[in-house]
């Protein structure tokens, strides 16, 4: 179990690192959206490539942030029911959900989407829209994203079993207890740090 916990923490660090990097995609998407809108309005110079780039960025944020959301225990759940149970019962519910719902879903989508992405890479598929982008990076994000989600599911499963055996505290996987005000402040501070980093370059 000690080795599995080390693996779980490695997966946690990997998905945290990816989520922190992909968070920049939001700023890029906003800049692309604003630039595209201004160019279209003032210069009548719209481009399908810019529109598709926005879709790619949003897809990357969704797919590569989902594992981090799971790690933080921020995914949608029926807390109004489960909070009435003991912590051990809640953990068993999580284990049931991971084994019978999350992991099968993630593995199935990974299995079905990988050939789809590989064929797109092989054919160097291009967008059907005039001036559009290559398609395979967007299609490749699907199996990669669900592979990372499956990995995070394994990590969460390991941590739940470790908790049941008394090896770790529930704080390692419980939902962050920040208030909405604290979350807004954290987002604001993170954005200010990004702006300062850009200005210093």
3D structure, described in words:
- Keywords: Cell inner membrane, Cell membrane, Membrane, Transmembrane, Transmembrane helix, Transport.
- InterPro entries: DctQ, TRAP_DctQ.
- Residues 32-161 form the Tripartite ATP-independent periplasmic transporters DctQ component domain.
- This is TRAP transporter small permease protein.
- It is a single chain.
- The chain has 201 residues and is mainly α.
- It has one domain (2-200).
- The protein has helices at 2-22, 24-43, 48-71, 79-82, 87-123, 136-164, 180-200.
- Helix 1 packs antiparallel against helix 6 (136-164) and helix 5 packs antiparallel against helix 6 (136-164).
- The longest helix has 37 residues, at 87-123.
